[in-house]
Amino acid sequence: MEKEFNEFKTLVSPSLLMEYWYCPRFIYFMEVLKIRQYEEKRLKVLIGREIHEKKALQPDYLRKKLGVIKQEKNVYLSAPELGICGILDEILFLEDGSISLLDYKFAYNKYKFRTQFLQNVLYAMLIESNYHTGVEACYIVYTREKNEPVRYPITSRDKEKVLESIKNVNRIVKEGYYPPATPDRKKCGDCTYKRICV
């Protein structure tokens, strides 16, 4: 894929994509109508931020079980050719010469959360663009358990899903497109925008 730089191109962040995956209309209300969500008042958001702050203060360590020989923490990367950017918790350099990533989540490892996994697929795409190497898997640490990393393979199909989501987010923002709401109506009960969502 040929890289093309445009200083005016909007870069989509992981947090914006997480909102889109929760409900596409969040993007319309937040980015088109500019109505704030006031998410800082939500308990899960506050807990998530606290966890990431504590992890950032921890002394450096290497995940020897995974074959890590070097790591970089809290790394900002962008890929203008893909229209994405983000801050990675940890980039892992493994002894077999490959690169992976590790992310912290305030959750239980009962099943793979689709949005959390796709967020890490985006991080993998950022690594591939900046380090010019493939990323075959990501690791997620579920902090409500034993802090043991869980490995998830990443496929080309996963990356296609993320690229499609980026395209849809850009359509909403640039064209003012009003997308369908999430089909999961259980989410609507706790939604900030439920009074104005038609």
Q: Which descriptors would you attach to this protein?
A:
globular, 5-stranded mixed sheet, Lambda Exonuclease, Chain A, 5 helices, single chain, 198 residues, 21% strand, disordered N terminus, alpha+beta
Describe the structure.
There is one protein chain. This protein has 198 residues and is an alpha+beta fold. The chain has one domain: Lambda Exonuclease, Chain A (Alpha-Beta Complex), CATH 3.90.320.10. It contains five helices and five strands; from the N terminus they run αααβββαββα. Strands 1-2-3-4-5 form a five-stranded mixed β-sheet. Helix 1 runs antiparallel to helix 4, helix 2 crosses helix 5 and helix 4 packs across helix 5. The chain is globular, with a radius of gyration of 17 Å. The N terminus is likely disordered.
Order of helices and strands: HHHEEEHEEH
In the CATH scheme, what's the topology name? Lambda Exonuclease, Chain A
Determine and state the CATH class.
Alpha Beta
Task: Please give the oligomerization state of what you see.
Answer: single chain
CATH architecture: Alpha-Beta Complex
Write a concise synopsis of the structure shown.
With 198 residues, this protein is of the alpha+beta class.
Task: Give the topology.
Layout: H1 14-22, H2 25-32, H3 43-57, E1 68-79, E2 84-94, E3 99-105, H4 114-131, E4 137-142, E5 149-153, H5 156-175
Parallel strand pairs: 3-4
Antiparallel strand pairs: 1-2, 2-3, 4-5
Helix pairs in contact: 1-4, 2-5, 4-5
